[in-house]
Amino acid sequence: MTKRIGYRNWRWLALWWRHFILLWSTIDGQTRYTIPEELKQGSVVGNLAKDLGLGLSEIFDRKLRVASEAGKQYFNVDAGKGELVVNERIDRDTLCRQSASCVLPLQVVIENPLQLHRIEVEIRDINDNSPNFLTKDRVLKMAELTAVGARFPLESAEDPDVGSNSLKSYILSKDECFSVKVKDIEGGRKIPELVLEKPLDREKKAVHELLLTALDGGTPARSGTSQITVTVLDNNDNNPVFQKAVYKVRVNENSEKGTSLIKLEATDSDEGVNGEIEYSFGEHTLESVLSVFDIDAVTGEMFLRGELDYEVAASYRIDITAVDKGSPEMEGHCRVQVEVIDVNDNAPEIVLTSKPSPVREDAPSGTVVALISGRDLDSGNNGKVTLQLTNGHPFSLKPSFSNNYALVTSGVLDRESSSEYNIEITATDAAFPPLTTKKTIPVSVIDVNDNPPKFSQSSYNVYLKENGLPGSMLSSVSASDLDFGDNAKISYSILDFKVQDVSVSSYVYINSDNGSIYSMHSYDYEKLKGFQILVQAKDHGSPSLSSNATVHVFILDQNDNAPAVIYPSAALGSLPHQKMPRSTKAGYLVTKVTAVDADSGHNAWISYRLAEATDTSLFSELTVKIVELTVAGARFPLESAEDPDVGSNSLKSYTISKDECFTLKVKELGNGKKIPELVLEKPLDREKKSVHKLLLTAIDGGNPVRSGTAEITITVLDVNDNFPVFEKSVYKVSILENSAKGTFMIKLKATDIDEGQNGEIKYSFGERTPESVLSTFNMVPDTGDIFLKGDLDFERATTYDIDITARDEGTPEMEGHCRVQVEVIDVNDNSPEIVLTSQPNPVRENAPSGTVVALISARDLDSGNNGKVKLQLPRGYPFSLKPSFSNNYALVTSGVLDRESSSEYNIEITATDSGSPPLTTKKTIPVTIIDVNDNPPKFSQPFYDVCLKENGLPGSMLSSVSASDLDFGGNAKISYSILDSKVQDVSVSSYVYMNTDNGSIYSMHSFDYEKLKVFQILVQAKDHGSPSLSSNVTVHVFILDQNDNAPAVIYPSAGLGSLSHQKMPRSTKAGYLVTKVTAVDADSGHNAWISYKLVEVTDASLFSVNLYTGEVRTKRAVSEQDDSSQRLLIEIQDDGEPVQSSTVTLAILVEDGLHEPILDLRQKVPEPSKKSGRITLYLILSLASVSVLSMVTFIILAVKCVRNSRSSGSCCMRRDDFDGNKNPNRNLQIQLNTDGQSFRSCLSPMSEFSDFTFVKPSSTTDFKEMINVLDASLPDSAWTFESQQVSGELYFMTF
Fold first, then answer.
1. For the segment 1079-1110, what is each residue's pLDDT rounded down to a tens digit?
2. How far apart are CA 1092 and CA 1246, in angstroms?
3. Beta strands 1228-1234 and 1290-1292: pairing type?
4. pTM strictly above 0.70
5. What are the start-end ranges of the E strands in 1098-1195?
6. How is 981-994 classified by DSSP, letter by letter?
7. How far apart are CA 1248 and CA 1160, in angstroms?
8. Which of 236, 366, 645, 796 is the Cys-Cys partner for 274 at CB 3.0 to 4.6 Å?
9. Is residue 774 over pLDDT 90?
10. What percent of the chain lies above the pLDDT cut of 90?
């Protein structure tokens, strides 16, 4: 048992060493070459044949080829020199990108036997690429108030080169406002950043053109450039300005609504929304203008909205305002003067230049009542007007100038008789046809002014509160007049009067029409407590009459004076200092504040209270809003303080609490009033300080000094001057590649210290984010959340660098940037792949175990364990897999191959990765088994028998043999040939030839049965293998007789003459044998069967011929009347097809007294003689010999027939039935053919004497010689015997 185990171990160890040596010989070590990239096609990499130890002849013979694992055939082998040369341009930057090492693995495959060599070609980088910016022109937008030091990331240049040839630095064209800094990030990337070195001013320079240059570290250095255009964004610091301050427009009064009047244009040197202007009518534009005109807010075009009427308004003055959309809004103004043009579209018009005045009843004749004009708005004759009056009135028209008339009295008026006249005036223009207008003018007759006005009361009392608004109505007086018309019309006035040495007209004024009295200014009860006004009412009569009334005005006190602090005195300082001991008890009198009030009554009552520690009850608060980017030096007017004192005690100056951003200036007006103005000394920054608290103090010039304070709260309004800032500049995210769409990845957050919309942030992908990123990821603009939008594929992209922009909603927009680095985590989502490094080679069926069939590699696009692949073969195949290196395998034979049992194997290889769960791929590799010539051709029969008719055409096909070969291709291709042999001492190739391709045998000439009855052909079938194999077969060719010989007459011999003479006695009886015609046929079989017939005869009743024997006998006895000379023509025919025949002519002479030479044997007693005894002896010996020979022949044939009965050969023994039924009584012919001997017996059933002839002919014996022999033996030497009737033929033939 122990020995057996040891034996198995040794067998296993030996098998292991055998496979190891085989694998070592199949897969050799690695060879490494180093070349620079961009070599020309045909450049030599190295002498591959030398390095692999191969001769030049082996490169071609063993089919050396190079396979690239990269998929592209960058190299091939120069078969003439054995050198590895460059086949295609190699761009290292495309092939290996930024990898520090770039190695192309190659597999060199050599066949016969199959070997695999792994070589590596390292591609060395050259400085063949310049740094390149993907964006050649980039535009950056910056607010002109961007803080100095702000940084703006720029696009990095890409340089496919690596190492020292890669990108090294950036430089920027000279600009006083900008510089460039380089930021190094992970992975060695350099990001250029544009740095603001000096404040921008868009009005001075709106665009900065910069050239960014990227330099690599090669020698010489290469560079690439990008044009950077920095657009300075505007702030709203300019008013819209019209081209003109006043625009003038003329328009026809009959213009239709919608008519364009003028297009106004204002310009704003700001841009964007700051420069976008909207037009509108001025704030105080009258409704009469708004109803007639309209303006387009966007274009500034003015349109006619309503109807124009020259008579209503001949011109318009319209104020226009242009307001921009900036923040804060700025506006400009202009005026449009519209002149309305009259048109000729009116009938004559009667116009009262002055309304008809009432006529005094005592008016003299010629007194003008009214001034009338006739006018026509048309021009020319159409505008010339004539006026006429109707008759019957004490009035007439008196022309003056230019269509003007005076309506005058032309008779005595009596108001009491007629207080009013309706005078009809007709106006006619000079047009054709003329237009006419009529107008009735009422004329009143008034009385004479003889009544003065009268007030409703003699005096008036008025009570007025002090500090009233100037222009307020104090009171109203009224008077009436009994007269009529102008005589009753009253005007009011104030008679001059002194109040505190000042004219009363300085205090009040009166409306002359209605008697209303108004104050000129505000009254101060402390200065004036009351005064009187003398009002006069005067009518309009001539002469006028008047009357007077007194108005008493009383001033009422109001609380209009603040208490004034007497103690502590302001002279001691604006902040009085008091002392008190720390031991002060409750109720301790610290000090006493004393104040007085200039008002009276309860308005002068004073109370004290403590408001705050800083006593804010003494202050009033002012609120000022200032934009944080307001230019230093700007002034803001503040509210003035009021001081009732005058002179040196009045307001003198202002002071303000200390603040680094503000100072105070005082502006004096013309009336001596002082206006405090807040001056901005330093730019504001809301983000540093959003509210400034200042204390404004007003100081008077009294002694002690008195002061008042106001708190000023300055709110700094935000301007969008800060960028959104992310918490990190780079965010890192990891995500599985099989994550579902919609998976949340990260939440980004940026902050903007501006407020309002300026601090509201929207998130988006960078401007130049590639489509591959946009289709894969999605971002929520409001929240900064990034979600998975598309499918991830680790094999397509392992990482993503995504630029993110955070943009606020201010004006102008400000933005911040960050980068999100997404790492895709591999999952086992790719099945292994089986790759044929070399196509499977056909394998010889006698290949030894371990023969390499194919080189196979396995790969998996996944990484880590997911990408580790194992290959396996199913059991039952005579093949196995042998690993080599790095997932490469050799498919080798491991058992005996037999193409005849299996010509092809479909080997299923299974590749399984190490993922969880593992993925599997199967691939079927067809392996073809190459045939080896290990099977000889095999004939379909062991021998062939061919029966061939004689006299065939030369070139006729005799037969065809076929052989098959279990092998394939050339090994199974068979060629046929005839082996040399002798037939009648002549090469068989003289008789036949063979088609070498298909085995068909053809005759070289026609065969003659009489010369050659049988021969053999030895055929060889030989395949085309190497070495070739062959086999032989015998073809037996039997020549079949054809009827090609006519019967030959033996007796009477042709040599005796064509006319044979015979004699017979006249005493011949019936049945007398006159003669016997004997003929033979060289053919055989039924072709040799001969028949005789009488064709012509002198006396047909006298002679007959036996059909089969040829015996000529008398049919009756010869009489004396018969001719002594009888002529017979006998035709001899064979039984062939076609029938062959010959003739013989017998001349029979009938003689008297001639005795019969031959008697009938049956009636004659034989006489023994010496001669006849010898013949008998010969006959006995011949018969015995023939019998013995026949017996031996029968025995040989029987034995041969039994032996060959199992095969297709047989002895031929047949009975010819073709003519047997027709002719039951035929000659029995026995023919025995042996080598060189022919025995033949002919038995004539109808003859009294049958013949047996023994001859010893040769196959080459001339048939004439045989005839001569037979002829010489007849009639005396013929051997005759009697036989019974026999039917048919019997043939014996040896094969």
1. 999 888 888 899 999 999 988 888 999 999 99
2. 13
3. parallel
4. no
5. 1103-1105, 1111-1114, 1125-1134, 1141-1151
6. -EETTEEGGGTEEE
7. 9
8. 236
9. yes
10. 28
